[in-house]
Model the fold of this input.
Amino acid sequence: MQYISTRGGGAARTFTETLLEGLASDGGLAVPADLPTISAEHLQQWRSLSYAELAGNVIGLFATDIPRPDLMRLCQAAYTPAVFASEVPLRAIDDQLTLVGLSEGPTLAFKDMAMQFLGHALEYALERTGGVLNVLGATSGDTGSAAEHALRGMDRIAVFMLSPQGRMSDFQRAQMYSLQDDNIHNLAVEGVFDDCQDLVKELSGDPAFRSTHHLGAVNSINLARVTAQIVYYVWAWLRATDDQQTHEVSFAVPSGNFGNILSGHYARQMGLPIRQLVLAANENNVLDEFFRTGIYRPRAADQTPSTSSPSMDISRASNFERFVYDLQGRDPQRVQACWSELASTGAIDLSDETDRFAAEFGFVSGTSTHRDRLETIRSVYDATGQLIDPHTADGVAVARRYATGDVPMLVLETAKPEKFSQTIHEAIGVELELSPALHTMMSAEQRVTSIPASAAALREFIGERALKAGP
Ligand SMILES: *Cc1c(COP(=O)(O)O)cnc(C)c1O
Done:
């Protein structure tokens, strides 16, 4: 299996090569040269597998340069009961909707699932090449903690994670700063999230600094993350259908960077019987606007308000180019034309293609507001006694508009309610009880270094502590 760029430049690469680099050298995104297929025989054979075994089989269709026994070992290490308390449970919330429990990992969000695989895969790839990686990132809370919990204790990887001082919740701070591993460096920057991101851009954009210090990233465009997410859809399909007949299911996906639902799109293109892919947005609904009108118009930071589903407050969806590539017949010239149009007009107009979104690709979409979230959290709680987090509530709210009853509607649970207790309190008037393990985390000693929003200070910090390649 070879990987090429959506913009057509550069040489074809292996899975491991795309794993270790970020953007393709021509500014595009890595995509598989041909999508593998999932056959009815595959699905039959995969029914009895554990999540880790299934992951090895599905990821194995992509990571053909990793010997299968090694890949199986990486998946067993990632999806062990020590990290994931239970194996992606499916829980019905009414006679039409079922939640897919993807948030059983250490940071209580679905990002743990793909990130844990990525951590083990990176360490393995670095062992084979003899390299090291210093991951530099900025976080407003969720991605950074999933990355740190996945990469803690690795020998060939260190993490330098910038976060805005005083601007994260107590829970988010505890989740990151309570880690005592030597390879995890939390930096509280005197500024806002954009300042953190600017610092990362400045240092990553300096080729000399970047190569001297072996800088890398684990952001949502990483193809290994997209690949590991395809497993959710296959697992959920296998659990929601029965042995005798193959039938379709639909998925509803709370979306921000278009990473999770892109994996659903790949699963569907590979042959998994999916009827609809329901994209749920919050008030920052650039993607819903696209699927309704065919016009993609990213918004500036000052037009991206903070909402009660903060992980979806994204107005420039970094994985969207991979979908446009498929929509444009996998023609890099047409993808380039779209991005030139975006640069000159601020939008991409694909309004001639809107009929194909649902008919050919199964995509439909909707927007959920703060009010919808509160009402949905309340109604699910009243009907079932189950609490859902605000992002999952966006998914449930939009899924209800499309559920038809003739196929199961599976809603991906992207986080646990404990992470967003304020909104839960607003919805149902109850203070959530934290588990003993979370209590321990909240009161644990914290390890963090404050720095000014200065590139010089960050360079010095990294210069002193970055891992260095061996002889
Ligand atoms: C990251 C995240 C999302 C959005 O997922 P994308 O892959 O960026 O579309 C939704 N909900 C939660 C809780 C998240 O952390």
Summary: The radius of gyration is 21 Å. DSSP finds 20 helices and 15 strands in the chain.
